[in-house]
Design a protein that fits this description.
Blueprint: H1 10-19, E1 22-26, E2 29-32, H2 37-46, E3 54-56, H3 57-67
Antiparallel strand pairs: 1-2, 2-3
């Protein structure tokens, strides 16, 4: 909440994070079909590009490993 300069309530942030999901498409590709202003600002705060509609499993694993550091 602090990272977004308190623009959104905790409930709004949690709902946005729960809405971000990838659907397996084919051959190691996943499609992300939820994106809004809250998700955009979460991405800016965490340095994650949520605007990418398609990602490979490798890209997803790389993002996860970066967030664990």
């Amino acid at each position: 909440q602090r990272e977004t300069d308190n623009r959104y309530s905790t409930k709004t942030l949690v709902n946005a994070m729960n809405s971000i999901s990838g659907t397996y498409v084919d051959k190691n590709y996943y499609m992300f079909d939820y994106y809004d202003e809250v998700v955009e600002n979460l991405g800016k705060a965490t340095n994650i590009d949520f605007s990418k509609r398609f990602m490979t499993l490798g890209e997803i694993k790389n993002i996860i490993s970066q967030t664990k550091k």
